[in-house]
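Checked the freezer inventory, then went back to the computational side. Two predictions to log before the end of the day. The first one is the construct we discussed on Monday; recording sequence and tokens without edits.
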Amino acid sequence: MLQNLFIFPDAIRRFHPEEKIKLNIHGSVLEFFRDGARLIVDTNLLQDGTSTIILHNPVTDCVYVLYNYREILQALDLTPRSFGRTMHQRCFMQIDKSGGKVFIKVFLLQGDYTLDSDTDDFSACSHKTLGEMHELDWEYSWVLRDTTIRFDGDKVRLKFFVKKSDFWQEHIYINHAGQSQEIFPGWNEVEFKYIETEDAYVGAKNCRYKGRAIKLREGE
């Protein structure tokens, strides 16, 4: 598990000066502590293709696990970055699962550069800056390159190159206005009936994940 665990030091604003977090790992089980609160996430119970996060709500001073993170983002029409700002939540950890394996990001409090633990030494884990997060996410999922968009009457045609990580084992779809087509590593060309009020979204079938949107605006 540690080879797919990444630490982001000095990343999250403190709720109070003495605030502390800690992570223990017991096989497939993550035991997370924030001050006096304790949470358990059994990664064997997580479904492939899902994203799970550990959040803190400063209003209630409650720390909790959100198991359907991507679905919540779609329902709220938010990107991951705007979710924290809009909902006033702090994210301490994100766990993505695919092919039975997990990819974990841990975000440390401001002024903290090492992850505390009773079970593991995380010093050998890769430490990243927030500016490196997008590239890291792409390394563990997929990214579209060299996208071209062509409008032809009531059709829109897209051509793009898909680079998919070996970690990501789920099917990938491009979706537009209720239409879905599976896409594959390498060059892809797809055609949809164009609905001018809708963009295209990449991810699970029929998803509307704003964090992976392709803007479709004729003439742009």
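The second is the one RB wanted added to the comparison set:
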Amino acid sequence: MSLSEPLVTIRPADEVDEEGATEITGTPFNKMRILLYDDKVSVIRLEEPCMEFVFTHPLMRRAFGAYAGVTAVLDHSPAAL
């Protein structure tokens, strides 16, 4: 188990680095932001307490990428499955 990746990391959203991020816009979720990066997805709660939920697992990144219609984050390599 020590080699497995966590499904999500939760942390305060006081220092979110948006460099290199693509924001998913046009969602029905007006109290959160969804940012896509090459190696992670951040879901940021905009109401107090502001929290960032960071997904690094390849399958979760693919799911968010599919939701956004962004093929750049859809890793189809066998290692991602």
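For RB: The chain is about 15% helix and 25% strand. The radius of gyration is 13 Å. Let me know if you want it refolded.
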